Amino acid sequence: MAVATHKSFPSWAFLSLAANVLLVATVVLLIARYGRSPSPSQIKISPIASPMSSAEEAAALATKLKSRQQLTYSQWVDLLGHEAKAVAKNKPDRLTILAGDSLSLWFPSELLPSDRTWLNQSISGETSTGLLKRLNLLKDTEPQAVFVMIGINDLTKGSSDQEVLDTYRQIIDQLKQAHPKSKLVVQSILPHSANPDASLENRQQILDTSNERIHTLNQAIETIAKESGVSYLNLQPLFADSEGYLRSELTTDGLHLNRQGYLVWRSAIQTFSQLMLSQPAEKPQTLSN
Q1: Helices (H), 121-201
Q2: Helices (DSSP H) in 10-72: which residue ranges?
């Protein structure tokens, strides 16, 4: 009887339940980290659609990859430049910018918190140096906040930790100078899984980049953020398992995120925004352990 009941329960319901558990866990972890106890009215997780099945998710991702991989890097930069100009002209309320690599690029637009206007300025395969060189595209925008995640491609392409950190300082300095009224949020680099998918072109380079190194680099990035007077969002506790690897239920290939992974990230951004960015401050928030 129990077996029959289990089979009749729809698979999407299990996924929906898992998503809700992850969202609640995210809120608890963030509140514990930043030491605030807001009232229930302060934390509002806007509704989300039911998760897609694995087949639907794979098909949707394949369609996106097929259409967007046809663009060269320079074409990507031109496209993002046009989008930034359009946003600068329209001046939407609560403009928030995502800047980074493929992890940010593939963030499903329908999962981004709906209480903000989002401009995704990310490129697949992007490095910290590449991001630094194209920050001028944003000079005429007036974002309320900028969320940055960058660095994993630097590591897999052979850059030293010091090179990454030096570029991080420049990115922060340039964004602060260009957008003195904006809240800048530096996000930690995500770990990878113990066994990335064999289909990844840079699989061996990923394996050669230990999660211990990523964790140490994140600590240094947090120190730079603190010294620069900008916010730091540590995502590692939400995405890493007990051994420091990317949690298998949150990834498609051991590096990139699936829908469940983006649900966790979405909840982290939304909760962090409501806790740290909702009220104006005379200077950027500085967060530390």
Answers
A1: 128-133, 152-156, 161-178
A2: 11-34, 54-68
User: What 3-state class would DSSP assign to 121?
Assistant: strand
Report phi then psi at 185, rounded to 5: -120, 115
* Contact partners, residue 221, CB within 8 Å, separation at least 6: 151, 165, 168, 186, 188, 189, 232
| Residue 255 to residue 201: CA distance in whole angstroms | 12
Given a contact cutoff of 8 angstroms between Cβ atoms, the answer to whether 178 and 140 are in contact is: no
Strand-pairing partners, residue 187, are: 233
pLDDT digits (tens, 9 = 90+) for 166-215: 999 999 999 999 999 999 999 999 999 999 999 898 999 999 999 999 99
Q: At what angle do helices 161-178 and 211-228 cross, to 10 degrees?
A: 30
Q: How far apart are CA 237 and CA 234, in angstroms?
A: 7
Residues 25 and 4: their CA atoms lie apart, in Å, by 31
CB 270 within 8 A of CB 30: no
- Beta bridge partners, 97, equal 119, 146
- The percent of residues in the chain predicted with pLDDT above 90, rounded, is 68
Mean pLDDT of all residues in 236-251: 96
DSSP character string of 156-167: HTT--HHHHHHH
Residue entry with tokens 């930690």: 188
Position with higher pLDDT, 14 vs 230: 230
Please state, in angstroms and as integers, the Cα–Cα distance from residue 39 to each residue in 25, 268, 276, 280, following that order.
17, 17, 14, 19
Backbone angles phi, psi at 107, to 5 degrees: -60, 115
- Given this model, what pLDDT does residue 117 score? 96
Six token digits for residue 6: 């289990």
Q: Which two tokens stand for residue 177?
A: 């100078």
Cβ(145)–Cβ(123) under 8 Å?
A: no
As a whole number of angstroms, the longest Cα–Cα distance in the chain is 66
